[in-house]
């Protein structure tokens, strides 16, 4: 679990002024294709220099792209829509992770085998306002009313709160916390959010400032196309791809959790960097509007551009 402490890893490839690309979090297996593109020189071969930056705060990427402090960033689709709802000038140019990774995680030793078993229990969360809405949606889907559970803010170390039995369930990722629980010798019980009333989502989309995209479309297109090529390689040659990632992020090399997390993420990399499933955008926007998280739905053509896709 050394990757929990890898907070900042910058890279600069190629020559001249680089594209500044901010991750959504510290480097982890979600980002393997980016490191494959670096290791194979795909960005450089496309004529694009790339600087990858990890944020000091997961809320930074949308704000820093809107302020043009970075050129591109990864962020969850829902976070992106919340930022657009708050008026930030952003546009989605692609996706890295196609499909949801989140859900609710409990321990089997708590006697929880169904979401309805959380009635009368405590559920920990880290991020407002989205997480409480997601977990209440899932519980309602199982027939549990909000007044029948207690939502508890536990800070960013949700896994510790679960293992210490401060709470009975937490928001978690199926490709990390679930595997970490198993690695620690416990048995997880995971409930995927998309199976319990929450619309499916792009876990990570690639965003930029619209003005930057208009001014630098050829560079953005070359970056996206090189990333698409790296995703193809990752899917076709997973062992080699993981080795490239571990060479770039040695703090995580040789970790069983890294290997298992990568294997769990592999089916979710967005082939072709595609992010243009319109019904998915419409459903997530309608969900966020219905729960008062954004004021109104925006036209899909205002939210995404497909001009950079291969």
UniProtKB/TrEMBL annotation:
Residues 28-241 form the SsuA/THI5-like domain. InterPro entries: NMT1/THI5, SsuA/THI5. GO terms for biological process: thiamine biosynthetic process. This is Hydroxymethylpyrimidine ABC transporter, substrate-binding component. It comes from Bipolaricaulis sibiricus.
């Amino acid at each position: 679990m050394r990757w929990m402490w890898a907070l900042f890893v910058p890279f600069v490839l190629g020559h001249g002024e680089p594209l500044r690309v901010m991750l959504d979090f510290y480097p982890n297996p979600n980002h393997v294709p980016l490191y494959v593109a670096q290791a194979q020189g795909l960005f450089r071969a496309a004529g694009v220099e790339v600087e990858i930056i990890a944020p000091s705060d997961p809320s930074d990427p949308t704000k820093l792209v809107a302020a043009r402090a970075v050129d591109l960033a990864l962020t969850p689709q829902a976070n992106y829509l919340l930022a657009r709802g708050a008026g930030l000038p952003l546009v989605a140019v692609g996706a890295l992770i196609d499909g949801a990774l989140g859900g609710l995680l409990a321990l089997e030793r708590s006697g929880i085998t169904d979401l309805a078993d959380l009635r009368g229990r405590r559920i920990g969360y880290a991020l407002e306002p989205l997480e409480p809405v997601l977990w209440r949606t899932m519980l309602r889907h199982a027939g549990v009313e909000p007044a029948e559970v207690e939502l508890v803010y536990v800070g960013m170390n949700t896994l510790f709160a679960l293992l210490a039995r401060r709470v009975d369930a937490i928001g978690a990722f199926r490709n990390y916390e679930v595997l970490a629980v198993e690695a620690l010798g416990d048995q997880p019980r995971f409930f995927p959010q998309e199976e319990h009333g929450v619309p499916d989502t792009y876990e990570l989309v690639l965003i930029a400032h619209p003005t930057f995209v208009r001014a630098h479309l050829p560079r953005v297109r070359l970056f996206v196309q090189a990333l698409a090529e790296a995703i193809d390689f990752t899917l076709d040659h997973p062992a080699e791809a993981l080795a490239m990632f571990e060479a770039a992020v040695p703090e995580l090399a040789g970790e069983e959790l890294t290997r298992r997390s990568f294997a769990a993420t592999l089916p979710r990399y967005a082939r072709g960097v595609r992010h243009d499933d319109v019904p998915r955008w419409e459903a997530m926007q309608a969900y966020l509007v219905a729960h008062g998280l954004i004021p109104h739905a925006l036209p899909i053509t205002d939210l995404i551009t497909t001009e950079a896709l291969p």
